[in-house]
Amino acid sequence: MSPAAQPSGEAELTDPWVALEPGADPVERVRVLRRAHETFTEAGTVPRPVRSVVADSWRRSARAGVGPDGSACVELTDGDLGSYRAEHPLARVMPLFRELMGTFAADGEHLLAVCDAQGRLLWVEGHPGTRQKADGMNFVPGARWAESAVGTNAPGTAVALDRPVQVFAAEHFIRRVQPWTCAAAPVHDPRTGRLLGAVDITGGDGLAHPHSLGFVQAVARAAESQLALLTPAPTTTDVLELTALGRDEALLVAGGSKVRLSRRHSEILVLLSRHPEGLTGDELLCALYEDESVTPVTLRAELARLRRLLGAGVLGSRPYRLTVPVESDVEVVERKLGVGAVMAAVAAYTGPLLPCSGAPAVVRLRRRLADGLRAALVSGRDPDLLADWAHAPWGEDDLDAWRALAAIRPTPPVRARLEELETEQSATRGRAPRAPH
């Protein structure tokens, strides 16, 4: 960019989600991004002018073990893909996607793609020649394009961040995808707000224009509006209520009846409530069991018992999924935290999620929820809320919370507890304790 054009370009870049400012030279931008990508893959540092959203995505991709020379894997084929697509909520708005985007994709030699909340491509349609080229990188229905599987890409990153995003050329993490540019926006269930997937437009450099991002956002909002018209409001008897915070065995309320679940059934319902699109048997095995010797037969037996407990028609299969909405106390805390209602989130948090569960996916969710609450409390610097957290059973050993509390309320008991925790930590790590605050 010339010095004369710089001020205008900087003004446009106030939105970090737009990939290429108007007037910028895409060829030069690609050259700079490729050099930055090589620097990151070799040294682990992200030089300017890589956008922050892309830099963060590259780091997440690397932590997930994605290699720059990797490729997408096809997870669903033939009958499995067909049955999964037919039952997916976004199937109901595919005619709308085709009406709004089909001609644009075909005439512009682009592709219209729709993925689920896990980044699996369900539909890829558009210009035949472009589709043939995309086949070479497995950008095909049934392939998993989650950010954790293939690195930075618009549909995968859009569902990872739950917001619209544009990815231009060498911003893609995997090299074979770098000739492409894409823009994607998430689509939500209009009744529950749950992420259903994302709609994407993929093609050449021309899609780096800000209008492309606005276009997919508008299409996603139109789809949500149509889903609201197509989906009747659930009655109270159609909703499961799941209480799993601070309990080793979750409590399920269905049709006015309360059921105390076994620990394994609690884990399964928590995970399925997080994945309305469903989980395959292999995904559930990995999510539930650390022991790789556990067989699918064991899992199927647990699911059969749970299906009898829930009643007919509540637990679907291929993939395993709940066919009625679930309102869980975990989601209540997340929603309140997401809108900045920290006090309400803390009030709704009655303890760690299934605290004795060792299921890998439950452990991750438990930590993520606690970490999110702690971060909000530390950032908010409300001494009363911090004190409530620190003195709760789950916060009494929380060193970060005690440090934050001591910084704003350094009473002798608080300082004494902080010194005790830091001494314990230092002894564990084999180094001298820090001086008390």
Task: Report what the structure shows.
- With 437 residues, the protein is α+β, with helices and mostly antiparallel strands.
- The chain folds into 3 domains: 3-230, 2-Layer Sandwich (Beta-Lactamase), CATH 3.30.450; 234-379, Arc Repressor Mutant, subunit A (Orthogonal Bundle), CATH 1.10.10; 381-437, no CATH class.
- The protein is built from 18 helices and 13 strands.
- A 5-stranded antiparallel sheet has the order 3-2-7-6-5, with helices on both faces. A 4-stranded mixed sheet has the order 10-9-8-13. It has a two-stranded antiparallel ribbon with strand order 1-4.
- Strand 11 and strand 12 (321-322) form a beta hairpin.
- Residues 418-437 are annotated as: Disordered.
- It comes from Streptomyces phaeochromogenes.
- Keywords: DNA-binding.
- This is GAF domain-containing protein.
- Residues 256-322 form the OmpR/PhoB-type domain.
Please describe the structure with a list of short key phrases separated by commas or semicolons:
Arc Repressor Mutant, subunit A; disordered N terminus; 18 helices; 3 domains; five-stranded antiparallel β-sheet; Beta-Lactamase; 49% helix; DNA-binding; alpha+beta; GAF domain-containing protein; 437 residues; single chain; OmpR/PhoB-type_DNA-bd
